[in-house]
Amino acid sequence: MHRRSLIAAAGLALPALRAARAQGATPLRFSLDWALQGNHAMFTIAAERGLFRDAGLAPRIDRGFGSGDTVVKVASGAYDLGYAEVSAAVKFNAENPERRVVCIYPVLDRTAAAVITVNGRGIAALKDVAGKRLGAPEGEASRVLFPTFARAAGIDTGSIQWTSMAANLRDTMLARGQVDAVTGFLFTTHFNLLAAGVKEDDILAWPYAENGLDLYGSGIIARADWLEKNPQAASGFVRGCVGGLKLLLAEPDAAMESVKAREPLFDVALEKRRWAMTRDRCILTPAVREHGTGHLDMARAETLVRANAEAYGLKNPPGAESLFTDRFLPPAAERRLA
Q1: Predicted pLDDT at 139
Q2: With bands split at pLDDT 50, 70 and 90, how would you rate the model's confidence at 335?
Q3: Where is the SsuA/THI5-like domain (predicted)?
C-alpha cells in the first residue's frame, strides 16, 4: 500500500508541477497569417509538447486574416509576435519607422507566391500569360510583386488584363474560367482548386522563387522595441518554433492531430498534403539543407527589400538590416534539419 501510495502521489505531483511552471510562464500573444493550415502545425505541436513551456513561455496562438493584417497588429502592440510574409513589412516599415517590425526567423526560405492556372486557358508556359486575364486581390503581395517578377522572368506585361476580387473568391473564379490565371500562395490556391473540382493534373504553377525572383517567404516577426525589452522571450519562442518544425518533419501525423485538437473542422488528410508541398517547395531548400532552418543571407534580404521598394515605388525603403536579424536564432547546429 505504501509503495502504491507513493506512485499515486508522484502521478498527481507531475501535473501539479507542470501547472505551477505554467503559472510562472510569460504570456505571449501570437498571431498566425491565416486560418490554421498544415504548415502551422509546427506551432501547435511545439505548444502541445511543452517546448514553449520549457522556455518559460505561454503563447496564445490565434488565427490571422492575411499577412498585412498580422504586420499591423504586431506593430500596434495588439500581438507580441506574428507569422507573416516578410514582404508585407517592407512598405509598412518605410511608412511607420517608429513602429517597425523585424523578422527574427524566416521559416519559409522561399516565398510561396506563384502564378497558377489550369489546362485549357492557353497557358502552357510562363510567357503565355501575356495577353491573358489575371486575377488577384488588389494590394495582395503576389500581385504587387508581379511586375518585378515579370521583369525577372521575361514576361511581357503590357497586354495583361487584371481582375480584382476578394481573396476568398480568387480560386473559384479561376476554376470557373472568369480569369485565365491568378497570383497567390501556391499551397493555398492549389488545394482550393482541388476543392473546387479541378483535377490535380490540370493545375499548372510557376513559383516566383523558382523562376527568377528568389525571396524569403513567411517568418516570425516582432516589433523592434518589444525585442529590445524581451530578448529572452524572443529567443525562447524561436527555439520552440525550430523544435516544433523538427517535430512536424519527424511526426507529421501527430503534428496534424495537434492542430485538429484546436480546430475540429481541420481536414487532416488535405492539410498533410498541403504541408508536404510547403515543406518541399518552401522549407527544405538547398540553403536550408546546407545551413539549417532560418539561415539569414543578407544579399537575399536586400533583394527582398529592393523588389518591394520597386513594386511599391518607395523612395526611402528600410535597410535590410533593419528588417532582418539572426540575433534570436539558436546556434546553427540546433537548426539542422534531417
Answers
A1: 85
A2: very high
A3: 38-255
Asked whether the beta carbons of 27 and 60 are under 8 A apart, the reply is yes
Distance CA 296, CA 310 (A): 22
**Contact between 303 and 214 (Cβ < 8 Å):** yes
How remote is the C-alpha of 75 from its chain's centroid?
Answer: 17
Adjacency order of strands within the sheet including 181-185 = 161-163, 133-135, 181-185, 113-118, 203-207
Distance from chain centroid for Cα 13: 39
Residue 100 predicted with pLDDT over 70 = yes
Burial of 12 (0-12, 13-18, 19+ CB in 10 A): exposed
Q: Strand 218-223 relative to strand 81-85: parallel, antiparallel, unpaired?
A: antiparallel
pTM: 0.90
What are residue 185's DSSP bridge partners?
113
User: What are the chain's domains?
Assistant: 27-110+216-335 (3.40.190.10), 113-210 (3.40.190.10)
Per-residue pLDDT of 129-141, as tens digits, reads 999 999 999 988 8
SS3 state at 295: coil
Contacts of 161 (CB under 8 A, 6+ apart): 132, 133, 134
Q: Do 90 and 221 touch, CB atoms closer than 8 A?
A: no
- Rounded CA gap, 281 and 210, in Å? 9
Confidence of residue 17 (pLDDT cuts 50, 70, 90): very low
Q: How far is CA 171 from CA 4, 45, 118, 154, 203, in A?
A: 61, 30, 11, 25, 12
Residue whose C-alpha cell reads 484546436 in the numeric block:
262
Dihedral sign from CA coordinates of 137, 140, 141, 147: positive
| Torsion angles phi and psi, residue 57, rounded to 5 | -120, 150
d(CA 183, CA 97): 29
What pLDDT is stored for residue 8 in this prediction? 37
The pLDDT mean for the chain works out to: 93
